[in-house]
UniProtKB/TrEMBL annotation, chain A:
This is 2-oxoglutarate synthase subunit KorA. It comes from Natrinema versiforme. Residues 209-452 form the Pyruvate flavodoxin/ferredoxin oxidoreductase pyrimidine binding domain. Heterotetramer of the KorA, KorB, KorC and KorD subunits. GO terms for biological process: organic acid metabolic process; response to oxidative stress; sulfur compound biosynthetic process.
Automatic annotation (TrEMBL), chain B:
Residues 51-198 form the Thiamine pyrophosphate enzyme TPP-binding domain. One of its GO terms (molecular function) is iron-sulfur cluster binding. Residues 131-147 have a biased composition (Polar residues). One of its GO terms (biological process) is sulfur compound biosynthetic process. This is 2-oxoacid:ferredoxin oxidoreductase subunit beta. InterPro entries: 2-oxoacid:Fd_oxidoreductase, OFOB, PFO_beta_C, THDP-binding, TPP_enzyme_TPP-bd.
Length: 585, 288
């Protein structure tokens, strides 16, 4: 039996699938096991198929694989949808008393548990999923007391009665399986460790990073899969003296955030696809008014409304080129959940140091995936705040012109001007989207225009020189073949290395968290025999920019089914690509 | 805040490029007077302007200011006020800016009751784009894009505000300088969203809604002893009266609580610690 266990619960949207899965994931994390979760969900609140999948191991897990060992099926569709991942050793927990006649292939182990009746006995039908969790504990030999801890965390706020009922429901499921089945032959046995892990998803990490970085204002408009950042901040930002506004639309959201930022707050907005389109109008204003603003785009399948609940990395061109005219900007794209935290902190620093829009580009797979980490992965002592050239009263004088006007857009060598916020004596000034002089006053004078354009663009050059636009590296640094990836594909790629190794294939993997500016990969690509760029889109947007940088052709692996890469599948794709003919130069 | 601020302190040394005689001169002067009279100074004032001839106001005033994109000034003002409840926020723009492209934002800013003052320089035309119909243009007003008139009834901004739950609704006339400044001052002093629609004639493109027209037709509510701005029904009557043009404070909700107070936002959000907040590790532990 494999070291890791793959478990899932599936049913109709509205069946409590998410909370059931989350409780089990938390129980596993409490037991010191690593967890990696993924979700299949349809864009409907009721009536759509939905599943919560957990991969767990004592070793770090960072990808999904094509295998399901234990499936809690609340509907036939759950079984049908996952048939290709089920195998001879799989156990399927279902409720035989329910009206559907479960069709379970013979080679699998059907575990019929009267979920609803047992739940009713324990205090209410609503707990049938908890009964199933108890049954799953028994099948896998997982100590049900860890489940108790997760139930306490989940229902503690609702009173001890509810917690006790739930624990009883879990016991009922456990005992039912114990009494009616002998499943030792399945051979599942879940080891535990003494490690303490936290379990969180990419959007929670972004929200946490924002708070740690001093974000105090957030305005947003709900859109999948960005909304959970707003929900996270709504519950917590007030503890830090901040506030979240649900704006009337994205045009408003970005403009509110811009207002707060100009007033001196660290400020952020987040959206996805359609929302980014609406925000595009204001990108240029953020840049020309030199306002520090973090704009997060949690990508989903487009174009248009596309597939709102499906994975894609299709907005890279938007982040790089969106907005009319030429908009200097930074584009940062975390490659893991811990990076969602750290890159968010960095995004706020970059925004204030360079007074420019920073696009924080994540994707759906990263936003909903929960993963375990040692808490030190988010060590708050490591968080540094750099507010850039924010001037106080004493420094204002240095930046006044002969008439005593504050030179808010002073042309400086590094391209960064002083920044004064309201209340700073003698620094009152105006900022505008119109081209302006150093004082912020409209001008169409040719030299002034060129000075300001150069000044703003110089910030990018300064940052290019002064910041680390690094990449992360995995696999064998001396391997002949190079794989390049961005965004959430990193985990699957790292795990694919094991599969490739089994087949005797050696590769070097570079995972790039900076899209603009980005590391220069010329040397790495020239040293490689073959280079493959892996991304979740159809046209290879990152491959395009890499080809442009290096002036050579690269191979591409593109997935745009709406589903993230799986480690084993990616290993196969890489093997195929390496034997494919190089495209004509 | 210094007590010796004069209204000219709010004037920038940039000469307005408005057409001679444009109503916007008077509108701006009244705003500056009202700001000075309410004890504000340029360093604690933030003026957000829209796009249009009217939107140029931020350039001619001296304060912290942002001149943004067309129609989005109110959200910017909202952001400024939320981050800095200590700062006086004034938002200004035209009728096209506010009631056309920005109409959605108008409804929601009113509804939120953010403590800022919104001055709309209503000339019933698009000035900057050289004379097209605006949402407040009369239905038979001929323009380059509506040669036979828009053939649609104009928006009644005061009614729109009332229907959206406004806590302060007023109208003034830019050339009635004293009254205009007084009304804007009341709007600033109001706890919540102070909305003033200002008749600010465009002498170049609008030959119907002229100074003379307003002078001849304007009824000042101050002269109507019966009008009580705290009386919602009375306000409704005045606002929905399509036969007359009024100036004065139509409506004021005495119990208005501004958005930031409702939401307990009192702190200056620009102050943040040097590193992560002290108890930030709690944010991580929450995920145990
Ligand atoms: C998104 C966008 N669309 C169109 C314009 C062009 N535009 C500039 S001002 C304006 C109308 C302004 O009218 P109004 O608000 O009544 O102001 P006025 O010039 O009359 O003071 C328009 C349509 C623009 N700047 N931005
Ligand atoms: S065009 Fe009209 S609104 Fe614009 S400046 Fe001239 S008079 Fe004023």
């Amino acid at each position: 039996m494999a070291e890791d266990l793959n478990w899932a619960v599936g049913g109709e949207a509205g069946d409590g699938i998410d909370s059931t899965g989350k409780i089990f994931a938390q129980a596993l994390a409490r037991a010191g096991r690593h967890v990696f979760t993924s979700k299949d969900f349809a864009s409907r609140i009721r009536g759509g198929y939905t599943a919560y999948k957990i991969r767990t191991s004592v070793d770090k897990v960072q990808s999904v694989v094509d295998r399901l060992d234990i499936l809690v099926a609340l509907t036939q569709r759950t079984i049908d949808e996952n048939l290709d991942e089920l195998h001879e050793g799989s156990a399927i927990i279902y409720d035989g008393e329910r009206s559907w006649d479960a069709e379970i292939p013979e080679e699998m182990t059907a575990v019929d548990v009267p979920l609803k009746s047992l739940a009713e006995e324990a205090g209410g039908a609503i707990m049938r999923n908890i009964v199933a969790l108890g049954a799953a504990c028994e099948i896998t030999g997982f100590d049900v007391e860890y489940l108790d801890e997760a139930l306490e965390k989940r229902f503690g706020g609702k009173g001890s009665k509810i917690v006790e009922n739930n624990k009883e429901a879990a016991r009922a499921g456990q005992e039912y399986v114990q009494e009616n089945y002998d499943l030792d032959h399945l051979g599942y046995n879940i080891d535990t460790t003494d490690n303490d892990y936290v379990l969180l998803n990419g959007n929670e990490a972004v929200g946490m990073g924002a708070l740690a970085a001093g974000c105090r204002f957030y305005a947003g408009y709900p859109i999948t899969p960005a909304t959970s950042i707003m929900e996270y901040l709504t519950e917590r930002i007030e503890d830090y003296g901040g506030h979240v506004v649900q704006a009337e639309d994205e045009l408003s959201a970005i403009n509110m955030s811009l207002g707060a930022a100009r007033a001196g707050a660290r400020s952020m907005t987040a959206t996805s696809g359609a929302g980014i389109d609406l925000m595009t109008e204001t990108f240029g204003l953020v840049a020309t008014s030199e306002t520090p603003l973090v704009i997060a785009d949690i990508q989903r399948s487009g174009p248009s409304t596309g597939m709102p609940t499906k994975q894609e990395q299709g907005d890279l061109n938007m982040a790089l080129y969106g907005g009319h005219g030429e908009v200097p900007r930074f584009v940062v794209a975390p490659t893991s959940i811990t990076e969602c935290f750290w890159k968010t902190v960095e995004a706020f620093n970059l925004a204030e140091k360079y007074q420019t829009p920073v696009f924080l580009v994540s994707d759906l797979a990263m936003s909903v995936t929960e993963q375990t980490f040692p808490p030190e992965a988010f060590d708050m002592d490591e968080v540094e705040i750099d507010r850039g050239k924010l001037v106080d009263e004493d420094e204002v004088d240095e930046w006044l012109d002969a008439q005593g006007h504050f030179r808010a857009h002073a042309v400086t060598e590094d391209g960064v001007s002083p920044r004064a916020i309201p209340g700073t004596t003698d620094a009152a000034h105006m900022s505008t989207g119109l081209e302006h002089d150093e004082l912020g006053r409209r001008t169409e004078e040719e030299d002034e225009r060129v000075h300001q354009v150069n000044k703003r663009n110089r910030k990018v050059e300064t940052a290019r020189e002064n910041e680390d636009w690094d990449y992360r590296e995995f696999g064998n640094p001396d391997a002949d073949n190079l794989i390049i990836s961005w965004g959430s594909n990193e985990g699957a790629l790292i795990e694919a290395l094991d599969y490739l190794e089994d087949d005797g294939i050696d590769v070097r993997v570079i995972s790039v968290p900076y899209i603009f500016p980005r590391p220069d990969l010329t040397e790495e690509i020239e040293a490689a025999e073959e280079t493959i760029v892996v991304e979740c889109n159809a046209t290879g947007q990152f491959a395009d920019v890499i080809e442009h940088d290096v002036l050579t052709r690269v191979k591409r692996i593109n997935k745009y089914t709406g589903v993230r890469f799986k480690a084993d599948e990616l290993a196969d794709d890489i093997t195929d690509k390496l034997t494919e003919e190089v495209p004509a130069q | 805040m210094s007590s010796d601020v004069r209204f000219t302190d709010f004037k920038s040394d940039k000469q307005p490029t408005w057409c001679p005689g444009c109503g916007d001169f008077g509108t701006m002067n009244g705003m500056m007077k009202a700001l000075a009279n309410t004890g504000n100074d340029p360093d604690n004032t933030f003026v957000v302007a829209g796009i249009g001839c009217s939107g140029k106001i931020g350039t001619y005033m001296h304060s912290y200011a942002l001149h943004g994109v067309h129609g989005r000034a109110l959200p910017v003002g909202t952001g400024v006020k939320m981050a800095r409840p200590d700062v006086e926020v004034m938002v200004a723009g035209g009728d096209g800016d506010g009631y056309s492209i920005g109409a959605g934002h108008f409804v929601h800013a009113v509804r939120r009751n953010v403590d800022m003052t919104y001055v709309v320089m209503d000339n019933r035309i698009y000035g900057l784009t050289k004379g097209q119909a605006s949402p407040t243009s009369r239905s038979d007003f001929e323009t380059s894009t509506t040669p036979e008139g828009p053939k649609q009834p104009p928006v009644n901004p005061l009614a729109l505000a009332l229907a959206s739950g406004a806590s302060f609704i007023a109208q003034s006339f830019s050339s009635d300088a004293m009254r205009h400044a007084e009304i804007v001052q009341e709007a600033i002093e109001h706890d919540g969203f102070g909305f003033v629609n200002v008749f600010s004639p465009c002498v170049t493109f609008n030959d119907v809604d002229t100074y003379d027209y307003f002078r001849d037709n304007l009824v000042d509510l101050q002269e109507d002893e019966d009008h009580d701005p705290n009386d919602y029904e009375a306000a409704k009557e005045v606002i929905l009266d399509s036969d007359k043009e009024y100036q004065g404070v139509m409506y004021q909700d005495e119990n208005s609580v501004p958005y930031h107070e409702q939401h307990g936002v009192t702190e200056d959000m620009s102050e943040i610690p040097d590193g992560a907040p002290e108890d930030a590790m709690d944010l991580v532990r929450e995920f145990y």
